[in-house]
Amino acid sequence: MRKKLVEELRNKGIEDERILSAIGKIPRHYFLEKAFEDWAYKDQAFPIGSDQTISQPFTVAYQTDLLDISSGDKILEIGTGSGYQAAVLFEMGAKVYTIERQAKLFDKTSVLLKKMEYGSIRTFLKDGINGLPRFAPFNKILVTAAAKEVPPALLQQLAVGGHLVIPVGRKGVQIMMRITHLGQNEYKTEKFDKFKFVPLLSGVNQQTIK
Length: 210
Hints:
Elements lengths: L1 H10 L5 H9 L20 E4 L2 E3 L2 H11 L6 E5 L5 H8 L3 E6 L2 H13 L6 E4 L12 E6 L8 H5 L1 E11 L5 E10 L2 E10 L15
Parallel strand pairs: 3-4, 3-6, 4-5, 6-7
Antiparallel strand pairs: 1-2, 7-8, 8-9
Helix pairs in contact: 1-2
């Protein structure tokens, strides 16, 4: 089933074999609720609780491709969710720092990543809009939720030469954007295809698993 998914992504235009290899290696069904396990290798998004979703594999591959990852890159992910995207980044040789604002998801995913031997992915329960200034700068920053505008803190934490990939727009459909830090207060913005994400929210929901 994973091989079929990889071929489907290749047919949809994903050419980076490193991305396809990572997706072919990772058991996506571990990241889904049991009710959706049978459909884990379809190119679809599914709910994971706390009003969040696991992105469809094509979206994961698309955003990862725009990041242009090199082995050893220090990457900040905003929106850990199920942990699947973080696992893809890790499999590509990145040092991953990932933020989740929903305590329930944070607790569940942190345990899952450790069980799957992704324990070196560093997880944080924080407001992702503020990034992680303590660990900045980052070579790449990935936002997996729809922002109304680009958070200034994330631009400030992006290393020179680095990329910020983020879907930007109001409710409905967002434009995938890649912002490259060219130098002191100088950035290049590129716009790509349209996608639909859950909204990027501020604050932290401290409600934990009972």
